[in-house]
Amino acid sequence: MQSVKIGILGLGTVGSGTVNVLTRNSREISRRAGRDIEIYRAADRDLDKPKGCDTSAINLTDDAFDIINDPDIQIVVELIGGTGVAKELVIKAIENGKHVVTANKALIAMHGNELFELAQERGVTISFEAAVAGGIPIIKAMREGLAGNRIEWLAGIINGTGNFILTEMREKGRDFADVLAEAQALGYAEADPTFDIEGIDAAHKLTIMASIAFGIPLQFDKCYTEGISRIAQEDVLNANELGYRIKHLGIAKKTTSGVELRVHPTLIPQRRLLANVNGVMNAVVVKGDAVGPTLYYGAGAGSEATASAVVADIVDIVRALTTDPENRVPHLAFQPDALKDTPILPMSEVVTSYYLRIHTLDKPGVLADITRILSKEGINIEAILQKQPEEHEGMVPIIMLTQAVIEKNMDQAIAQIEALDTVPDSIMRIRMESLGG
Ligand code: NDP
Ligand code: HSE
């Protein structure tokens, strides 16, 4: 049987890894796919720049549209990233009747609804396993393996760079900027690393997972996003002392009034498996009504780990090349006409418990003022930790853990406490989750 010809767009970290994995494991991959897969062409902007793979047998071009317009190519693998030229290339590839594999979470989260509609019209598939949690096959697990469940919630560490930074800060007391530079050198970070640090990348991934879990259209603009740049070393240490770890989580939860869709630093009990996911590793817990909680763990970024997911998508497409488009697995797990417009809840309506770090003046009555405000807003205190006064500034750090409260009440309480003369600094708040089954 003739080989299937693929064209790769972008030979950076993931593109090079994809060439390496496809080349090294070609025999095993052909036995699985039922056909040989040939890297027929590849495009990269700067062909003189050294690549992380052997390109001697590949027909190279610096114009990615050459590949999109090549009639011999059946599958286009988009590994450029971003929503500019990558979007144009993917649209044109679909219009030209090519299947698309992409690792581009920004593209899928922001433009997936229109791209899937176009792909459906043209009878082609867009596969995006590598877009969420790097090498972990989480899309396939949720879309196919959990198809019998009503999914109740999912929570995950879905940004390798952020988890690497938090781990190094906690374990080695390293400086934020220094660890970020190392993550960039290792090829983990996005082209713009603020996407990693400020939670945008995690929000892209969460948006995609929530659609697949709950059968809702992609709604990236409604995802609440908070990064890790405000986390101080003292919060990491306080959390530890109280039996918790701070993790940057993406959480999607179905409630009776809508869907929670939020990315933020989160205190979770040290005994939870997610609390012990370190470095660049990612993990996602998905709770189905039938199966209960399930956990998926693996490398969330990196050249060959991500290529593993890209190649799996290519194999899936090759296996299904002769099937009727109507009988393929739907892009977002649910049939396109069965997606429901369940509302995404605003953060003010979300209920969680909190860690609060309040720096107060060292004066009598301060704690009483704070607890009075919390009580007025119906907030129960679970634990209080008063640290030693800070010598030179005469301030006392007070750490509080609260019971669950609706966020709008906590917003009001924080505003009132920050208005006290005895509380000169803004309050650090970190949401908490028990992640109980
Ligand atoms: P890189 O920047 O390493 O690779 C992108 C490559 O595309 C570069 O070689 C770049 O060239 C090239 N390129 C840029 N514009 C064009 C163009 N117009 N035509 C042809 N080539 C072009 O990024 P990554 O490999 O890290 O990421 C690729 C995608 O994979 C992104 O969507 C990313 O979010 C996603 N991803 C990345 C992971 C990782 O661990 N790195 C993990 C999971 C997903 P130049 O360098 O000259 O700009
Ligand atoms: N920058 C991303 C991360 C790459 O660090 O997780 C994987 O999506």
Topology, pairings included?
Blueprint (H helix, E strand, L loop, with lengths): L3 E6 L3 H12 L1 H8 L3 E7 L15 E3 L2 H5 L6 E4 L6 H11 L3 E4 L2 H18 L3 E2 L10 H8 L5 E7 L2 H13 L3 H10 L8 H4 L2 H15 L9 E2 L7 H9 L2 E12 L2 E12 L11 E8 L3 E8 L3 H17 L31 E11 L4 H11 L4 E6 L8 E8 L2 E2 H12 L9 E5 L5
Parallel strand pairs: 1-2, 1-4, 2-3, 4-5, 5-6, 8-10, 10-17
Antiparallel strand pairs: 7-9, 7-11, 9-10, 11-12, 13-15, 13-16, 13-17, 14-15
The structure holds NADPH dihydro-nicotinamide-adenine-dinucleotide phosphate and L-homoserine (HSE).
The site of L-homoserine (HSE) has 11 residues, from helix 7.
Short characterization:
35% of the residues lie in helices and 24% in strands.
